[in-house]
From TrEMBL:
One of its GO terms (molecular function) is protein-succinyllysine desuccinylase activity. Coiled coil: none annotated. It catalyses: N(6)-glutaryl-L-lysyl-[protein] + NAD(+) + H2O = 2''-O-glutaryl-ADP-D-ribose + nicotinamide + L-lysyl-[protein]; N(6)-malonyl-L-lysyl-[protein] + NAD(+) + H2O = 2''-O-malonyl-ADP-D-ribose + nicotinamide + L-lysyl-[protein]; N(6)-succinyl-L-lysyl-[protein] + NAD(+) + H2O = 2''-O-succinyl-ADP-D-ribose + nicotinamide + L-lysyl-[protein]. NAD-dependent lysine demalonylase, desuccinylase and deglutarylase that specifically removes malonyl, succinyl and glutaryl groups on target proteins. Has weak NAD-dependent protein deacetylase activity; however this activity may not be physiologically relevant in vivo. It comes from the Eukaryota. Substrate binds at Y68, R71. Keywords: Metal-binding, Mitochondrion, NAD, Transferase, Zinc. Its EC number is 2.3.1.-. This is NAD-dependent protein deacylase. InterPro entries: DHS-like_NAD/FAD-binding_dom, NAD-dep_sirtuin_deacylases, Sirtuin, Sirtuin_cat_small_dom_sf, Sirtuin_class_III, Ssirtuin_cat_dom. It comes from Cerrena zonata.
Amino acid sequence: MPSDDMDAFKKTLQSSKRVICLAGAGLSAASGIPTFRGDGGMWRKYDAMSLATPSAFRSNPSRVWQFYHYRREKALTAQPNAAHYALAMFSIPHFRNSVMSSPDTTFSLVTQNVDELSRKALREIHSKYKEQIGNPSQPEPPPRELLEIHGSLFKLSCTECKHVEKNYNSPICPSLKGTEDVYEKASSKPEPDIPIDELPQCKACGALGRPGVVWFGEAAPSVILMNIIARESDFCLVVGTSSKVYPAAGVAEKVKAAGGKVAVFNIDRSEGDEDADFLFLGPCEETLPIALGLGLPESQ
C-alpha cells in the first residue's frame, strides 16, 4: 500500500541522487488545456484520440489540422500553473540544491504534453530570478533535463522533405482562422473543408506540413534516451498521468526494477498506484509545490 506521508516523501527525495519526473495531461489541466481523455474526449463530434493518428491525417488533413489549430490556440494563451513552476524551479540547481542533501543530484523532466508549458515555465523562472541564478548556459535546456517525448504543437513537420521548424503564429495559416470557434461537439454547423494547398506548408519545399507531434502508432525518437535516464534514476515522480500509454508508462517500472522509489501525484486513483511507494491524491498544482518545497510566491 503506497504511503501518503509527506515527511517521509521529502526525506526520500532529499537523499536521492538521480530524480526523474514523468508528467502527463493532468499537469496542464489547471492551465485550461483539455486532456481529451475520459469524459472530455470529444472534440466537435469526434473522438479526439482517433484524430491523433497518421491514417486520420492522410484521410482528412483539413479536419486534423482544425483539431490541432484548436489545441494550438488554447496552448498559446495558456499560462503555466503552480505545478509547472515547482518543477521548473526544481530543474535549476540553484533552487534544487536548497532542498536536497547533495549538490550533485540530477533531475530530468520527461513530459508527454505537447503544450510547451513546462518549457515556458522554465524560461519565466530564468527571467524572474536571473540575478540569483545567472543566465542559463544555453538558451534551451538540454534533452536530459527536459524531454518532450511526444513533440510540440509549435513544431511544423514536412510530410515530404521532413524539414522541421518552430512556429508560434496565431493562426498558423490564414485558412484556419476562426475554425476554433466552430462548436466543439455535435453541431448543425457544417465542418469547414479546407483545401490542402491552404493548409500549413513547409517553408523549405512548399509541401503539406503536419503537426510536429508523435501520433498513436508512431515511434517517439526520444524513447531511447528516456529509457536510459529511467534506468539510471533512483526516484521517479509520476505527475498527472495514469501511465497507461507506452513507452512512457514503462518509466516508473524501470526505476522500480533498478531498486528506486516511485511517487505518484494524481487527481484520482489509476492503474499501477499499488506498486508506488508514495501516493498523493489531489490537484498536482496544490500537492507538488508542497512536496518539492518550491514555488513562486502566492502573489505571482
